Amino acid sequence: MKAHHVAIIGGGVAGLAAGVRLASQGVRVSLFDARDALGGCCSTSMLDGYRFNNGALFVAVPRLLDHAFARLGIDRASALPMHRLDTPQASVLPDGTLVVLGDSQRVRIEGPQGDARTSTLLGEIERCVRKWRPLLQVFTDDLLTQPLSLRHLLAKTWRHLPKLRGSLADELRRNFSDPQARAAMAAVTLYTGLPAEHTPVFQIVGLVSMLEDGLHLPVNGMGAITDVLEATLRRLGGEIRTNAPVARIRVENGRVNGLSLATGEVVVADAVVSTATGMATFLQLIDPALVPSAMRRKAQRAPLSQRTLGIQLGLRNRVLPRAYSVNHVPLMDEQKAFLAPQPGGVRWFNYTVPTLVLPELAPQHGSVVEMFAAVDEALPLDAWTDDFKATVADASIAALGRHEPLDIATTRLVSPRDYAERWHLYQGAIYGLSPAARPNQQFPHTTPIDGLYLAGQTTYPGFGVATSMFSGIFAADALLAR
Ligand SMILES: Cc1cc2nc3c(=O)[nH]c(=O)nc-3n(C[C@H](O)[C@H](O)[C@H](O)COP(=O)(O)OP(=O)(O)OC[C@H]3O[C@@H](n4cnc5c(N)ncnc54)[C@H](O)[C@@H]3O)c2cc1C
After folding, report:
1. Residue 160: is its pLDDT beyond 90?
2. Domain edges within the chain
3. Measured distance CA(229)–CA(80) in Å, rounded
4. Where is the Amine oxidase domain (predicted)?
5. How remote is the CA of residue 392 from the centroid of ligand 1, in Å?
6. Which of 120, 244, 287, 330 is paired with 196 by a 20 to 30 Å CA distance?
7. What's 330's DSSP letter?
8. Angle at the Cα of 37 (from 34 to 38), degrees rounded to 5?
9. From the alpha carbon of 15, which atom of ligand 1 is closest?
10. What spacing in Å lies between the alpha carbon of 40 and ligand 1's midpoint?
11. pLDDT tier at 382 (50, 70, 90 boundaries)?
12. Domain made up of 5-80+221-302+437-481: CATH architecture
């Protein structure tokens, strides 16, 4: 049966991409988001004249975003201008050595014998990029731009399989002889919440992409991405409702027939695309008696990603670090310490300064600084009272204040509880599923419930802005093909 009216739960990049794809094919679309604005984890909020990210900080692998926009019939370059960060990362090591990463003109080791070590590092980077670029290309131009097919995956990657054994740490040891340089490389993927020895080796393609293509920030911040998608969906006639939390997906005789909103209003639809994570969809939004047991088990056993405390500062002064993202990190084998709470005082931390290239995010001469503090994953969400989050944040801000001048005008703290209650991230897990989750732990786009489709960061190809957009396109295509 052709779907005439599709209801979409969630107006992040996945829900918006699904909406644009469906509406462009003549399907009537109604999109519901619980929040008062769209964009989910790819949006910004204004506070006291400072624009803060509500999740994603930057676009990595820009080619993938271009492909996703092209699939929706939008020319990314004209609709969404972006700044390239040529010096995306600098790492300060325990002995004071500074390792700057970026395009080849900017790579530098500043410390004892810095010039000689820089020239060795440049040669090693070139060899590493040469080794991994072909796989990066397979991922960005092929595998991630199509729904997962094991046969296709094997056909495209079999010749790379010998390289794909082991951890990122093993590969970095093989490629980089200088322990400080290796620590800086390993620090690039710490955003996953995993130390390099637990990070699958293929994540090195993210590092290679950063070295080759840099990181990118859309003009006016990450929310510009979802603004383009929202405007496109509206132009195509999609209905968008904010402040509209969905309480139930209505299922009758094994098939979906619409939604109930928290207000009790019933919306009749031929199909539903849920981007509210696979876990929330099957454990919270459907009558438990009607949830297929395989989906219930998958949701209950889902390996969740890390939680974090977001710390965002609006400064009256300019902060001009050596790179957009600065890490104070231990050597690679000790980086677990960076990912755990540091009760005795914060020594290891990361901060990003988007105003380095986007001064429009702050009032004149001001800056925005964003940090994420490691938290105790075992703490229940209720423990995150305002006092507790201020205490945890103060330790990180004090550490930052030892390295950068801070004239703080405003502070925003986003705790795991806030991510759960206000951002609707399941149990406050920022990426939904762990970055180490296997593809078979992701949720399917087509579910065993007729008319129910899933998209978003807990489905293939997983978390990330461009990848979540693709998941929305894949769910829409599955729906259109039925
Ligand atoms: C702190 C943080 C940092 C990140 N950094 C990066 C980065 O730098 N680069 C990158 O590429 N990616 C990053 N990511 C990941 C990226 O932001 C996400 O993978 C992506 O934005 C997820 O999009 P989505 O549409 O799947 O989900 P979301 O953006 O979470 O959208 C889901 C939407 O559904 C709504 N919703 C949920 N339940 C209901 C309900 N019952 N009724 C109605 N609406 C509901 C929510 O309000 C939300 O708006 C980061 C994420 C976080 C949280």
Report:
1. no
2. 5-80+221-302+437-481, 89-212, 306-430
3. 10
4. 13-480
5. 24
6. 120
7. -
8. 85
9. 25
10. 5
11. very high
12. 3-Layer(bba) Sandwich (3.50)
